[in-house]
Amino acid sequence: MSLDYCLMVTGPAYGNQRASSALQFARALLECGHRLGTVFFYQDGVHNANRLSAPAGDEVDLVRAWHELAQQHQVALHVCAAAALRRGVTDALQASLLKRSGENLQPGFELSGLGSLVQAALGCDRFIQF
């Protein structure tokens, strides 16, 4: 039986295992034939959407890995706008509105509100937080 999943990632790209574990879990459930509709990045998890992140050559590039997963499997990557702006992650529109010199949101990620999280959670069979 195939299930629809939604993930919420609250851990940063680096510093603890939550984001890495979420990515590994996402890959595993897709390999098993399940569907992953949305990954919502909240709290420190918004750092997973910072395109300026530059890990060492021997580390997994989680930002690009999430992007690749989303492209390959049509997964929506939503980033809590309030949490992102608070932590210095912004898209071009918000940077312009806030009179900042540039944006750093990785392509493939989208700033959104908690309403997107609620919609995703209501539309899936399993909701898992990392």
Explain this structure to me?
This is Sulfurtransferase TusD. Part of a sulfur-relay system required for 2-thiolation of 5-methylaminomethyl-2-thiouridine (mnm(5)s(2)U) at tRNA wobble positions. Accepts sulfur from TusA and transfers it in turn to TusE. Heterohexamer, formed by a dimer of trimers. The hexameric TusBCD complex contains 2 copies each of TusB, TusC and TusD. The TusBCD complex interacts with TusE. Keywords: Cytoplasm, Transferase, tRNA processing. Its main location: cytoplasm. The chain has 130 residues and is α/β, with parallel strands linked by helices. The protein has one domain: Hypothetical Protein Ychn, Chain: A. 36% of the residues lie in helices and 20% in strands. The chain is built from five helices and five strands; from the N terminus they run E-H-E-H-E-H-H-E-H-E. Strands 4-3-2-1-5 form a five-stranded parallel sheet, sandwiched between helices. It is globular. The two termini are 24 Å apart. The model has no long low-confidence stretch (mean pLDDT 95).
